[in-house]
């Protein structure tokens, strides 16, 4: 998306009168071919039915499903309508796709650099199965129960991880050893809101102060609206711990938590993650010599 904005700004890419990107003049690069083919693919009546209905809820989600459905069809070298008419062999077709996906041979995927074959072999094809199911649903074709029954790989190692009060305090102590106290501030808001790291670093929060009565006493808390790009949705978060409220009370509305430029954010992310690793090692929750996925 950033590359496209830059190309438009430089006049190397134009938009059609209705606001869509104009790919009529393109070179032989993988990126341009992919965009042209996707645009043609989405105009197929059965695919258009899927996209038009999903775009009402979320444009981002609709385009993501479009891309995944296209990758499945391109890898299997079949038309999407072929899938609708051959429900009985759908599992066989999808098994074939899954094997190619895990071998790194799925067609049409954009890759940056070399793909790690070990990591690729562990890729879960669930998201592609979801795209196919959505395509069937929007076209009124039922999938028999038990078909395309792909389960999510949930790493149970993280399921029951909790930080108790003493662990939280220890993490804040370790993080606060950094001179500007920025890491502690970020950790407090991170832990309070549960947002993604990318959201944490890019958000420009406006904290709204609220007061409620509890057992006859006035209690202060803050509300902040957070936009999560991945879900393309706005979430309301509550700030109620003493340290969280102090940050909210003194924050300049509409500014980032860190005050850094956009170009500095990737470095900030790495530094923050390194501080968390040190904290978790200090608590005995991670081992310094072990490499984690």
Query: What is the 3D form?
Result: globular
Structural class: mainly alpha
Q: Which sequence of strands runs across the widest sheet?
A: 1-2-3
Task: Tell me the quaternary state.
Answer: single chain
Main β-sheet description: 3 strands, antiparallel
**DSSP summary, beta strand count:** 3
Spans of at least 5 consecutive residues whose pLDDT stays below 50 are: none
Compute the separation of the termini in Å.
Answer: 27 Å
Provide the residue-averaged pLDDT: 84
Question: Approximately what portion of the residues adopt beta-strand conformation?
Answer: 5-15%
Could you explain how this protein is built, in words?
The protein is mainly α. 49% of the residues lie in helices and 9% in strands. It contains 13 helices and 3 strands; from the N terminus they run αααααααααααβββαα. The chain has helices at residues 2-9, 30-42, 45-55, 59-76, 80-85, 90-102, 117-121, 126-138, 165-175, 182-193, 197-202, 242-250, 265-282, and strands spanning 208-214, 217-228, 233-239. It has a 3-stranded antiparallel beta sheet. The protein is globular and about 65 Å long.
């Amino acid at each position: 998306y950033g590359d496209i904005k830059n190309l438009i700004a430089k006049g190397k890419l134009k938009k059609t009168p209705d606001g869509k990107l104009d790919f009529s003049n393109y070179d032989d690069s993988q990126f341009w071919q992919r965009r042209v083919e996707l645009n043609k693919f989405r105009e197929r009546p059965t695919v258009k039915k899927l996209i038009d209905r999903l775009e009402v809820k979320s444009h981002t989600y609709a385009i993501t499903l479009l891309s995944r459905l296209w990758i499945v069809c391109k890898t299997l070298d079949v038309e999407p309508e072929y899938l609708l008419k051959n429900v009985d062999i759908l599992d066989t077709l999808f098994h074939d796709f899954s094997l190619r996906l895990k071998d790194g041979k799925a067609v049409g995927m954009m890759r940056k650099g070399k793909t790690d074959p070990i990591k690729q072999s562990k890729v879960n094809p669930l998201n592609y199965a979801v795209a196919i199911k959505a395509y069937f649903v929007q076209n009124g074709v039922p999938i028999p129960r038990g078909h395309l029954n792909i389960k999510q790989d949930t790493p149970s190692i993280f399921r029951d991880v909790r930080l108790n009060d003493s662990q939280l305090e220890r993490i804040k102590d370790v993080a606060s050893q950094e001179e500007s106290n920025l890491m502690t501030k970020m950790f407090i808001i991170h832990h309070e809101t549960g947002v993604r790291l990318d959201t944490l670093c890019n958000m420009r929060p406006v904290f709204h102060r609220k007061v409620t009565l509890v057992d006859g006493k006035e209690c202060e808390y803050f509300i902040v609206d957070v936009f999560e790009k991945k879900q393309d949705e706005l979430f309301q978060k509550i700030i109620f711990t003493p340290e969280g409220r102090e940050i909210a009370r003194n924050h300049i509305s509409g500014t980032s938590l860190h005050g850094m430029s956009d170009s500095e954010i990737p470095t900030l992310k790495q530094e923050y993650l390194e501080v968390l690793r040190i904290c978790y090692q200090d608590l005995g929750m991670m081992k310094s010599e072990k490499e984690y996925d």
